[in-house]
Amino acid sequence: MSKQPFTIDAIVVLPDHLHCLWQLPAGDTDFSGRWHLLKRYFSIGIETLVNDRHEKEVWQRRFWEHLIHNEEDWEKHLDYIHYNPVKHGYVTGPLDWPYSSFSRAVAKGWYQKQWGSLEVPILEIETGDV
Asked: What is the chain's alpha carbon radius of gyration, rounded to the nearest angstrom?
């Protein structure tokens, strides 16, 4: 993705959806192009059904985009992403979910290892996740 660079601040991959928190280069707003490439490269090695558009049926066609407004908004989305496996009942704490950037965030000092395991964090954001 060197032609469309971005950094991932947070990510969690769940069995039926994923969440990402990205930073794009200044002035670049091409979320769609990046999602297209990400989905394409991720699904190359996955054996699954193909629809009439020759798309693998592992991804939904749409995504929800949210522009982060400030540091507080960024922190709320970081928390939401990392707590998502607990919210959906897959694990009892974010550190237990291996398909997440939570352990990287702990290593950076953004979280304590026990965060989200001992008490439910307050998660007040708007998403397309149900």
From this structure: 16
Q: Which CATH architecture has domain 7-107?
A: 2-Layer Sandwich (3.30)
Higher pLDDT, 125 or 48: 48
Q: Residue 50 has what DSSP assignment?
A: B
> Quick check: 44 and 38 in contact, CB under 8 A?
no
DSSP 14: -
The Cα–Cα gap between 40 and 63 comes to 15
CA separation (Å) from 88 to 5, 8, 81, 104?
A: 31, 22, 12, 21
pLDDT at 71: 93
Taking 3-state DSSP, the helix, strand and coil percentages for the chain, each rounded to the nearest 5, stand at 30, 10, 60
Helical residues (DSSP H) of the chain, grouped into ranges: 31-43, 71-87, 102-107
**Domain locations along the chain:** 7-107
Q: Could you read off the pLDDT of 51-73 as tens digits, one per residue?
A: 887 777 666 667 777 888 899 99
Q: Which residues are catalytic?
A: 99
pTM reported for the whole predicted model: 0.78
